[in-house]
Amino acid sequence: MSDLIRVLIVDDNEDMRGNIRKILSFESRIDVVGEAADGYQAIDMAAKYKPDIVLMDINMPGLDGISATERISLKCPYTSVIVISVQGENEYLKRAMLAGAKEYLIKPFSPEDINQTILNVYERNKERTTEVYAHKVLEQGYVQAPKVITVFSGKGGVGKSLIATNLAVGLAKLHKKVVIVDLDLMFGDVASLFNLKIKETIYHLVQEIERLDSESILSYLVETSSKVRVLAAPIRPEQSEMITGVHVEKIIRLLKETHDYVIVDTPSQLTDPVLTLEQSDFILLVNTLSVPVLRHNKNFLEILKSLSVPTERVRIIINRATLDTGVKIKDVKTALGMELYCLLPEERFVDLSINTGEPLLEMKASSRWSKEMNKLVQQIIAEDERAKSESWIKRFRLGRKRA
Ligand SMILES: Nc1ncnc2c1ncn2[C@@H]1O[C@H](COP(=O)(O)OP(=O)(O)OP(=O)(O)O)[C@@H](O)[C@H]1O
Ligand SMILES: [Mg+2]
């Protein structure tokens, strides 16, 4: 006898949810695990209950069904979304399928329609899911290629933007396609660190977010002389308010398609958009030899654990590591309980570089800071190579196991 199919019902209309629940109660293979009244609730409940199927209404207050479908498809690869819509919503339906829905049902539908659709989608996805799961199991301990790299610190002013921009330059110098996304949405200065004149920013981009694909998003990027592409932060702080985590998730997903590396610069607060760092392959956690910085970063590591983000993705950096502050390098290791990944020294040309908008790696390529930064670039590329070869070996093993 096969397992029960776990279903989550999402509809803002309570009567509709009740009707669907009633219909499904007559099918012995189906178990309704919950009901949600809007997209946000749906995302939370999908993460919590990990249903096999989500029945998703499209038009709902708060977060609509399309955005919720997109997020659930991304976060819960074992869950299939079936979209429920009324006649005449063809355009929406198309977008829902693009967002990752597996099937759709037009209202009104009969009990046979809904039961059969759920059973079909479940069976269709079972085989694929088993395969994905087998990969996951084999990939435990797998070194993820550092494609999306978020530079973060629990405290401001530690050198995040300096590191993010120069890392981008270093990777671009090695002919990697690099985009840097400024998620310091209120006070971002990536554009200024490259001395760029910006007309369009992430604020303009999100106005068109529903329509964007991996090609059209490129028109919002500005390229620097070092061939780094920049998605700038809004020009005015109040414009940051409308940018949500759902937007940022989509932006990063699209940019990944056309770049080798997506570097994300952040503010020191864990805002909703910044929480998409769950999507990062690497989190470069920037420290200085300062007790408050270490305290905040230790808290941040705890938060990551509570979000189930593996700490293996975190790489510890100490910036201004040559300053005499009373805190020693080994204290950082002890305080954070992690190995150190890179030490960048105090550097007297940093301010000149920031004020002129010329990245230090270009302005003073021979400085000690630039040399250490180049080592960081090499380390990241080496991790990429290692991840590729490990993934190849594991795929090979999986193939042999199946054969
Ligand atoms: N290695 C360094 N040597 C000397 N000064 C440095 C170094 N790194 C950073 N600074 C100083 O720290 C300042 C802040 O750097 P940066 O803007 O990169 O930090 P941030 O973490 O992005 O700050 P915010 O939280 O405000 O975004 C720089 O303007 C510079 O004066
Ligand atoms: Mg900054």
Automatic annotation (TrEMBL):
Q: What is this protein called?
A: Response regulatory domain-containing protein
Q: Does the keyword Transmembrane helix apply?
A: no
What SMART domains has UniProt attached to this entry?
A: AAA, REC
Upper lineage: Bacteria, Bacillati, Bacillota, Bacilli, Bacillales
**InterPro entries registered for this protein in UniProt:** AAA+_ATPase, CheY-like_superfamily, P-loop_NTPase, ParA/MinD_ATPase, Sig_transdc_resp-reg_receiver, YlxH/NBP35
Its Gene Ontology molecular function terms?
ATP binding; ATP hydrolysis activity
Q: Which Gene3D superfamilies match?
A: 3.40.50.2300, P-loop containing nucleotide triphosphate hydrolases (3.40.50.300)
PTM annotation (4-aspartylphosphate): residues: 57
* UniProt entry keywords in alphabetical sequence: ATP-binding, Nucleotide-binding, Phosphoprotein
Which PROSITE patterns does the protein's record reference? RESPONSE_REGULATORY
Q: Which organism is it from?
A: Vulcanibacillus modesticaldus
Q: What does the entry list under GO cellular component?
A: cytoplasmic side of plasma membrane; cytosol
Q: Which GO terms describe its biological process?
A: negative regulation of cell division; phosphorelay signal transduction system
Query: Which residue numbers delimit the Response regulatory domain?
Result: 6-122
Q: Tell me yes or no: is Signal among this UniProt entry's keywords.
A: no
